[in-house]
Amino acid sequence: MPRSERSPLLLAGLLAAAGVAHFTAPRTFDAIVPKALPGRPRAWTYASGAVELALAAGVALPRTRVPAARATAAFFVGVFPANVQMAVDWRHRPAPLKAAALARLPLQLPLVLWARGVAAAGRAGRH
Question: Does residue 20 or residue 91 have the better pLDDT?
Answer without folding.
Answer: 20
